[in-house]
Amino acid sequence: MTVPTLGTLSGRKLVTDLQSLGLQIGEDTAGIARKGGAGPSDHKTITIAGQTVMVPVYTSGARRSPFLASPPDQHGASTLVRDGQPLGAIHFPAAPRFYGLTTADGVPYWKIALLHGRDTLATTVHQTCIRYVDRRTSCQFCAIGQSLEADRTIAYKTPAQLAEVAKAAVELDGVRDMVLTTGTPNVIDRGAALLAESARAIRAAIDLPLQVQCEPPRDHDWFQRLRDAGADSLGMHLEAATQAVREKIMPGKATVSVDRYMDAFASAVLIFGRGQVNTYILAGLGDSAEDILALAERLIALGVYPFVVPFVPISGTPLENHAPPSPDFMKSVLAPLGRMLRDANMKSTDIRAGCGRCGACSSLSAYEH
């Protein structure tokens, strides 16, 4: 029995359902996983019909999911089951080879950067944020400090460390792009200086497409500096579509308003090009489908790719018990958004580097066809 490919109607539905409902797995299931940290987490990487996706497995919702994966064999092969009915074969990819290496000063490579999806390397350069320490200002979904507290990462990744790991990941595991994100260290450049320094070192060591991610810096000249440093694309993440939801869920970050983001997007597209500026939107935080689609229409008109993903409640955060969006809600957003992107000829496959290109945290790319 074979699961449907992602490009088919049934394949899109399956992945959308999995990413909303999660997947039950055994405690000792091997493979690539992520807990805590910046951005979407509490996932495990699985391959379905040749497509690599990230699926929630460590959330409370996943423990109640109708989906179950049988214990994988020594090659990572497993059977996906829904409500007791086998659906077909899936695969848990093995950890990449570069995870087994350490730097000269003894830091494991996997504490510096992680493999996301099939072939995207990702790192949080500065593993803290000026807002995280105070829940009155922090993003309520964020777990940037958890992985640091659990000794799964280091507080600051130097440019030399990032270059060393990136080179190894390309040479040993065929990594094709890299994401450099950061906690916000200040309200002036908002991390752009750190990202530029890191990008410059990586590009000096290896020819690897890079996406850098930060809040909009006050000085939009940073966009050209980031491009000159070697960044191929830029992510500036709104997280939510409406200012009201942003103020409720991310009170500190919401002080940088949607309008200021839109101004920054317009400036950045002039530097990076149409489709090479992306923004993350977490569906399920309180915005309606209409709110998300209205914002997406504005973003696409500016030349910004709106990467809409289902919100995943991360354990240990204030939103750990917040329900993820239903599969029907996600389809009500992703299907029309896919048509909008198709009509605008703005495709994830044209993004040079970053979350939209990787696409593992959302089934959006399947709706572009």
From TrEMBL:
Necessary cofactors: [4Fe-4S] cluster
Keywords for the protein's UniProt record, in alphabetical order: 4Fe-4S, Iron, Iron-sulfur, Metal-binding, S-adenosyl-L-methionine
InterPro entries: Aldolase_TIM, Elp3/MiaA/NifB-like_rSAM, F420, rSAM, rSAM_MSMEG0568, rSAM_sf
Protein's UniProt keywords contain Iron: yes
Domain Radical SAM core: 115-350
Any one GO MF annotation of this record: metal ion binding
SUPFAM superfamilies for the chain: Radical SAM enzymes
Superkingdom, natural source: Bacteria
Name this protein carries in UniProt: Radical SAM protein
